[in-house]
């Protein structure tokens, strides 16, 4: 005989658990994503892909005009809310400044896409030190601040997704991109470690490490595409999608593309000094 009587305490626990699930895992249409470097390249692709899933957006970068145009297009096509924040991300205190702004908007960031960054091509000693330090501030320090500030809030809420954009350059020293490659190695190690630390709190951290991609990266860095880069170049939207898929599946680190995967895999069998020589040869025009 089946007992149809429902224990009040059990039912109360079920209701509490249901409430927690709703609070910590918001539906896609309720989620907000902050995307840095949202005025071009991967930033546009991340924004478009997330908007297609109904995620509301905060776009952050220095250049306002491209973000305003993107925001208008995404609102019209996908019926999502989009806020534009013009900000120079390459300065100390940017994490707290962005958090202040999103709090003022009444927005809780559930997804952080740490995409802003750039490279400098050429001999390390020939580059202006100020420019190199600006790059390191953006690629490492600002990324760290944003991850810390929003990661802390996500931990408190019991839910969050953080994607850090690195590079296959982060897996080996790369002459002519010495400081850039080193900054991206930091991102790989930081992200993989944080994923382990934050997993018990329902916060996922994933690292996307692309190779050369059809964005403005080369134009900004000051390099003309080499034969190797033309061969290995991927389109940016598929790369961004691979990164987001990894993030939402809880994959801690992903390298997109067969050529890039083979490059990283071959490093396991190559002495580090030889890795540097090969990388330097491949980077020369």
Task: Give an account of the 3D structure.
The chain contains eleven helices and seven strands. By secondary structure, it is α/β, with parallel strands linked by helices. It has one domain (28-283): 3-Layer(aba) Sandwich (Rossmann fold). The chain has a seven-stranded parallel sheet with strand order 3-2-1-4-5-6-7, sandwiched between helices. Strand 1 (32-36), helix 2 (41-52) and strand 2 (56-61) form a beta-alpha-beta unit. Helix 2 packs parallel to helix 3 and helix 2 (41-52) crosses helix 9 (236-249). Residues 1-24 have low confidence and may be disordered.
Tally of structural domains? 1
CATH domain topology: Rossmann fold
- Helix content range of the residues, please? 40-55%
What's the end-to-end separation, in Å? 81 Å
Question: What number is the mean pLDDT?
Answer: 88
Q: How large is the count of helical segments?
A: 11
Determine and state the CATH class. Alpha Beta
Task: Report strand order across the widest sheet.
Answer: 3-2-1-4-5-6-7
* Inertia-based shape: globular
Q: How large a portion of the residues is in β-strands, by DSSP E? A: 5-15%
Rg, please? 21 Å
Query: Biggest sheet: strands, sense, closure?
Result: 7 strands, parallel
